[in-house]
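User: My instructor asked us to take a sequence, write out its structure as tokens, and then describe one feature of it. I'm not sure where to start. Here is the sequence I was given:
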Amino acid sequence: MNSSSNDCSPALRTWAEISLGQVRANWLELRRAARGAEVCAVVKANAYGHGAVPVSRALEMEGARWFAVSNAAEGAELRRAGIQGRILVMGGFIPPEMDAFFEHSLTPAVHSIESLLALEQRAAALARPLAVHIKLDSGMGRLGSREPAADIARAAAGLRFLQIEGLMSHLASASDFVRGQNEEQFAAFEEALETLAAAGLRPAIIHLASSAPVCYGLARAFHHLVRTGLALYGYAPEPRGDAPPLQAALRPALAWKARIVEVKDIPAGAPVGYNARWRAPRDSRIAVVAAGYADGVPHTLAGRGHVLAAGRIAPIVGAVSMDVITVDVTECPPLVRGDAVTLIGEEGRARHDAADFAREAGVIPYVILCAIGNRVVRCYR
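Assistant: Let's start with the prediction itself. The structure tokens for your sequence are:
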């Protein structure tokens, strides 16, 4: 787990400032955009680096009733922290995890008839009922059942302890408005729902949408519940093609900062970092900053990434090391040891968010946020 604090002390080398108020504001904005569908807060992977427990507590106070995690351990952590809402476990399960669903009142997504029957057998042994959601593979090709709907309905009809509360699926290309895969998956999911309903399986909760459909108003995906992850933390998934107008006004909730541990002047031609990947093109001033790839700075940012220093955009030069990066601050106002630079966030009118970091690193914002490491102290406000 990440350490956390309410005080971003000058003694911290690197820290993330997280606005729980902004997370709440994003959730309310997504609820408005969801047009009456319940908004499930996806808090897996430590709430995308924002802190699953603080985020869930803040949202539960705001009125959130559903949370989604990847595995039983993440769900159990929320229960131990006092979260009372429903917790959907989406990432599949292995046999040793099954007892945790009953112990902590978790709601597992079930991805095959085999898993459904194994969980029913365990429920019978414990004499404990359990609500589950069956996930259908409508075209993602990952988790979710591809078994005939009639077989799923027949297996469901024989259950004594499990209650099929929900049917769900997941869009593979939700923000892609070029390839048409969304329409293919809509049709496949709706056909499966009709077949299951005809066979007598009509669960109370149907859900398909993630962040992108809510952000871009794809109402066909909404159903009873939507599962918002990235958007909850202030980022709309980047669209491909001619996207509809954004339906939710979101702002990032996290800023990541690190302190300068050394400032040095080097002459033109001097090498910086491992393997001399960068040489100063002129007499330069270099700031050594206390965040490296062990903290979540992608190694691919060498020579490509930027930070904000004294309100200016400054380039990362030389290799990204395990514990530090080197930044060319020659064009910045004077900086000294102990000053902070901003890896993600704003300084004055300058902005450099997780989407910018991701484009520079050749990854997606999810990777940047989820990779912010344990040494980065989370400070909440």
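For the description part of your assignment, you could build on this observation: The first helix runs from residue 20 to 33. Try explaining in your own words what that tells you about the chain.
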